[in-house]
Amino acid sequence: MKTAPTCPRCGRAVHEPDLWSSAWRCDAHGPVTPLRAVRDPSPTSLEVVLDEAKVPVWLPWPLPDNWVITGFADVGEERTGTLAAAVALSGPAPLGGLGELVIVSEEPGIGLAARIARLDGPDPGNSFDRDPPAAKVRNDGHEIALWSLDGGPERAIYVGEAMAQWLWFIFSPADSGVLMCEIDAIHDLRDARDVGPFPTLPFGAPSPFLTESLKPAG
Q: For residue 216, is the peptide bond before it cis, meaning its omega torsion is within 30 degrees of 0?
């Protein structure tokens, strides 16, 4: 069954474009680009996301030890393509138990990552980068600076800019954020299809963190 589009910022049902407006509309946030779905972790779901992605679909590679891909989410519609893409990962947390990470690339103003991070959105704010960066990752020889935002005990949040889009790393629980030190490089999976064979990707069970974070409003 096809999932009904929702607001990426709050999960409310959205109104379709009509004769009076060409935009999808949320009763709380006005014109929005709709969240299409939270997708199961599988090669088929990844292909769906990649086919319409206008933003990078980021994956750390190599992954932290014993971590797997646990889901996807995408924001967009037929006219725009995908303007925000989330990749969920799960694995052993450094202090025990399950750790989760969602990496989001999105155009400014979408608000998907801020919702997952439980921040007022839609973007990280004008002064998020006033201090020195807390971490750095590399892509294709370029260094990407990331700044830490306060996510409380439940989340560790890092945000920066890459390819003119926001780049977010959202860890749960917060102590899983120490894994940021182990992530050296990220790859845009859109490019992986063009440059030759990419290592077989490990998929796991669907991410409860991604699903709960994007549960539609009641």
A: no
Residue 114's CB is within 10 A of a number of other CB atoms, namely 25
Q: Tokens for 27, please give them.
A: 């009763």
**Spatial contact of 189 and 59, defined as CB atoms under 8 Å apart:** yes
Q: What is the CA radius of gyration of the chain?
A: 17
149 beta partners: 157
Contact 35, 112 (CB under 8 A): yes
Question: Which CA distances in Å does 163 have to 49, 54, 100, 193?
Answer: 18, 11, 25, 18
- The per-residue pLDDT string of the chain (218 residues; one tens digit each, 9 = 90 and over) reads 457 899 999 999 999 887 777 789 999 999 999 999 899 999 999 999 999 999 999 999 999 999 999 999 999 998 899 999 999 999 999 888 999 999 999 999 999 999 999 998 899 988 888 899 999 999 988 999 999 999 998 999 999 999 999 999 999 999 999 999 999 999 999 987 665 566 789 999 999 999 999 987 65
Counting Cα atoms < 13 Å in the Cβ hemisphere of 199 gives 10
Tokens, residue 39: 């997708």
Q: What is the DSSP string of 74-127?
A: EEEETTTEEEEEEEEEEEE-TTSSEEEEEEEEE-TT--HHHHHHT-SSSS--TT
